[in-house]
Amino acid sequence: MASTEEKQSCLRNLADQGVVMVHLDARRPGVRVPDYLKTQEWLRLNFNHVKGRADLVVNDWGVRETLRFNGSWFPVSVPWSAIFAVSLPDQDTQPTIFAEDLPEEMVEAALARLQSEGEQLDGKDDPAPPKAIRRERRVPQTRRRASPPPEPMAEPAPPPPGDTADDPAHREIRRGHLRLVK
Question: pTM for this structure?
Answer without folding.
Answer: 0.61
